[in-house]
Each structure stands twice: as C-alpha cells, then as structure tokens.
Amino acid sequence: MSARVRDARLDGIRGIAVLLVVLYHASGPHGFGNGRLLPGGWNGVQVFFVLSGYLITSLLLAEHDATGTVDRRAFYRRRVRRLVPALSVLLVAWLAVALSGALAVQLFGNDAPRIDRSLALAPVLGLATVSYNWLLAFDLPTPSGMGHLWTLSVEEQFYLLLPTVVLFARRRLHEIVVAATGVCLIVTVVAQMHGQRDFVYFSTPTSGVGLLLGALVATAPPRVGRRGSRATLALLAACSLLVADDDARLLPWAALAASVAAVVLIVERPGFLAHPWLGYAGRRSYAVYLWNLPLVYALTLQHVWTPALDVVEIVGSFALAELSWRLVERRFLARRERPDRSRAVPIVLSGEGGI
C-alpha cells in the first residue's frame, strides 16, 4: 500500500467545489437564475470530477510505476471503505422516512409533483447496479431530493474501468485518455445538437469529460502560467454566477470551462487553497454533498422557502457532515491496511476521490 502525504491545497479545491454546490441550492434574488443564489453552482460537480480523475489516476500510476502492477482488490476495498459507509447511512435514513410516509416521495422533474412511494427504492437500486445516472439521462422515474447521487454512479463506472486500463495499458494510457476525451466531446456536441439536455448533463460519456481531464493531468501535467489561477477563478466565478443548469445552449461549455478551471487549480495549487476553512470544507465535502440536497428537499416540503432557510440549509448541511465525519467516515478511514514497506510509494494526494 502506498504512503501518502496530504496536500492541503487539494483539500481547498474540494472545499471550493462543495461550497459552490451548497450555494447553488440556496435561494437568490427573485427572478435571477431560477431563484438560486449561484445559478451555475452546479459546476462544483465538474470540479469534483476533475479532482477525482486526477487523484485516482495519480494513485494508480504511482503504484504501477513502483511495483509493476496494480492491486485491484486493494483499490476496490479502499473505494468501498471511503464511499459506502456514509452513503449507507444516508440511504437507510432516506428509506426510513420515505417508506414510512414521514417524507413525501415526489417524482423528480415534474412541474406538478406526483407522489409515488415506490420511487424511494430507485437510488438504492440505481447505485447498486452502477446505473443511477442513466435513469436521469433518459428521464426515467426517480425521486426528488436524491438526484445528486447520479455523480457517484459516474465515478463508480470510472473506478471499475481505470485500474484495469492502467494495469494492461500503462504505456499507452495518455493516448487512450486523449482519445476517450475526444470521443466524449463528440458525443456531447451531438447530444446538444439534438436538444438532449438531460443526456448531456447526466450521461457518463458527457459528464465524464471532467474525470478524463483530471486523468490527463495525472498522465502529463500541462504547463500553466503563474497568473493562470487568477483567470481561472474569474472563469469559475462567471460560470457559477451566469450559467443556469436549464440553459441547454451553454450548459456543456460551462461544464467544460469549469473543468479546465479545475485543471489549472490542480496544476498551479495557489497558496490561498491552503486556507483552513477551505480545508475544513474539503475534508468533509463528501458528507456535505450527500446530505445537502436531501435536507433542502425536506425543508422545501415543510416550509415556504425564505432567506432564513438558506441559513438552516448551510449550517444544517455542515452539522450533518460533521456527524458523518466523526461517527462514520473517520472510523472507517482509520481502518487502513497495514502498509507493505517493500511496496511503499510516497504520493502527494488529498484523499482518494474528488468528493
């Protein structure tokens, strides 16, 4: 198993990403950006994808270069240990309140909300079959309040493929990732031309561009000027403020721009990313991401949304994340396999995965 040195600035990137998502779910000025504080805060997901692609690929490459192989079983055990415990707690809580009738289960994306308790099982079955994002991509019935879990399916599919590709095609990995990125961009353009907004947003080949760009950084880091991070923040801010997720014309290009911005931040790692508050948010970003949208959904069903509920949303999301971190995630992450010193490889990472 590889020895790791934690890079606080990568935690900072993760912190920026999760804050964008949380503020995206907060209410904004009436009539602006569909009533969201950050209409384009959904681009935080793209930042997560890029960081995940970079971290996972870096980890696998370092292992392969040092040992000549990839221990896929150990890789998947680490992935399960990182993702499943906290996710299981959320899904159990979701099923408890949904199937008991304590929380209405509404059909996602329906202007006239339809109540269907059986939809509560869709996230569980979709994640178990690594297909939840495809339900949304083809506008199949899914429940409101749990749609954010589609990103986990996309990452799971990436995790299933990448270790094997690294193991058997290490020398050609860069060319393979470049080709895959090109194919994904072509699929995105074709889908957009045919007005398939949901497919562009949720499908694996279109949303996976961020993961592939992160992998490209790991295989061949680009050269970026010293002032690139300033322009990057301006670009990310513009996408977050101006491009709502229902703008089908700009959606894929905003996602691509946000992904490129994440690449620059990873390469340059400017000093402000090491700010303690960003690091705090970054280390708990997975739990914040898991609980934020369900909390927003529950609050929306019970109350007319007001600015005061924005405070409840933000504070509540971090409070639930803190509980998840202390009671669930940290306990399982501490149960790491004893490192094999003969295979130890120093890797500068910030956890494993983007979220």
Index terms:
15 helices; globular; mainly alpha; 355 residues; 2 strands; single chain
Descriptive account of the structure:
This protein is mostly helical and 355 residues long. It has one domain (4-349). It is 65% helix and 2% strand. The chain has a two-stranded parallel ribbon. α1 packs parallel to α14. The longest helix has 28 residues, at 72-99. 45% of the residues are buried.
Number of strands: 2
Instruction: State Rg.
Output: 20 Å
Helix content range:
55-70%
Largest sheet: 2 strands, parallel
Distance between the termini: 22 Å
The secondary-structure element order is EHHHHHHHHHHHHHHHE
Low-pLDDT windows of residues: 340-348
Strand order of the largest sheet: 1-2
Helix-strand layout with pairing:
Blueprint: E1 4-6, H1 8-24, H2 44-67, H3 72-99, H4 122-128, H5 132-137, H6 150-169, H7 173-193, H8 197-202, H9 204-207, H10 209-219, H11 228-242, H12 251-268, H13 276-283, H14 285-302, H15 307-333, E2 347-349
Parallel strand pairs: 1-2
Helix pairs in contact: 1-2, 1-13, 1-14, 2-6, 2-10, 2-12, 3-6, 3-14, 3-15, 7-10, 10-12, 11-12, 14-15
